[in-house]
Amino acid sequence: MTTHPALRNYWYAAFYIGVFLIIGLFQAAALSPLSSLPVGWLIADGLLFSLLLAALGIPLWVVVQFINFSKGNLYRQVINALSLCVITLGCWLGLGLFVLYNIMPEKDFVHILPTIPMRVVGGMLLYSALVQRYSILLKTERETEAEEIMEEVPPEPLLQIEEEHEPEHEQQQIEIIDRVAVKIGQKIHVIIVTDIIYIQAEGDYVMIHTADGRYLKEQTMKYFEQHLPMQKFVRIHRSCIVNVEIISRVELYEKQNYLLVLQNGEKLKTSASGYKVLKKALSL
């Protein structure tokens, strides 16, 4: 899980807050023809709601990392997107109106109520723009991280020889798993190995990608490399293990590097050494 960009340095934090302050002033200007509130209250109203949205953008960043809106059927995609939108806008409007109700005179607060529909529409547009921006940033960060990890360290020949000549009884002691248990809150979700599309490194955890969604598991990539069926799962580079049965095609990406196109349309980069292992698994 990555930290929100606004919490990483002061410059981005200032930029982030500045953008929302400008949005607040625009809101005040847009609502002025619809409300008889004094200019001071209009500006305070706009700044309050914009800063509340900026604050809600921090936990929203965390949620977006674990929700893939393109997974599952169309019905599930729409439900996921609408649910998150309703929860976010509900918190935003509820908190904003609660604060205004407690600080504004009642005669002024009643002028806020007719503007609620316009606020909902504006909030939906801002929410959509924020989620889209977060998705782009997260995709870029993950691709950058994958490219850095792809810089392979050549394996030691002696270590390779030892692994190749490892006694059979030691190899047989490694148990091949057929399911993975993932704890989600107070529940335990069981993932059948054949349902796994690929596994991606996430620091001290791994992210297991399936057709139904993504699941964070506290386990190492080495563990899955050893315990998943070797004829079906290949470690294409240090941060990714892919199910070869889900691969649709292999494309040349750069010199000595290849791109795997999966059946669901996702693309994964493979290192030179990972491609050699993949060729064996695919009998190329």
- As a percent range, the share of strand residues is 15-25%
Q: Could you state the order of secondary-structure elements as H and E?
A: HHHHHHHEEEEEHEEEEEH
Quote the distance from N terminus to C terminus.
Answer: 37 Å
> How big is the Rg?
25 Å
Low-confidence stretches: 149-165
Describe the structure.
With 284 residues, this protein is of the alpha+beta class. The chain folds into two domains: 143 residues, no CATH class; 109 residues, OB fold (Dihydrolipoamide Acetyltransferase, E2P) (Beta Barrel). 51% of the residues lie in helices and 20% in strands. The chain contains nine helices and ten strands. The strands form three sheets. It has a five-stranded antiparallel sheet. Strand 6 and strand 7 form a beta hairpin. The longest helix is centred in the middle third of the chain and has 34 residues. The two termini are 37 Å apart. About 6% of the residues have low confidence.
Question: Concise description?
Answer:
With 284 residues, this protein is an alpha+beta fold. It has two domains: 5-147, no CATH class; 173-281, LytTr DNA-binding domain (OB fold (Dihydrolipoamide Acetyltransferase, E2P), Beta Barrel).
Task: State the main characteristics.
five-stranded antiparallel sheet, 284 residues, OB fold (Dihydrolipoamide Acetyltransferase, E2P), 2 domains, single chain, three-stranded antiparallel sheet, alpha+beta, elongated
Topology:
Elements: H1 10-31, H2 39-65, H3 74-103, H4 106-109, H5 116-149, H6 157-164, H7 168-171, E1 179-184, E2 187-192, E3 196-202, E4 205-210, E5 213-217, H8 221-227, E6 233-237, E7 240-243, E8 247-254, E9 257-262, E10 267-270, H9 272-281
Helix pairs in contact: 1-2, 2-3, 2-5, 3-5
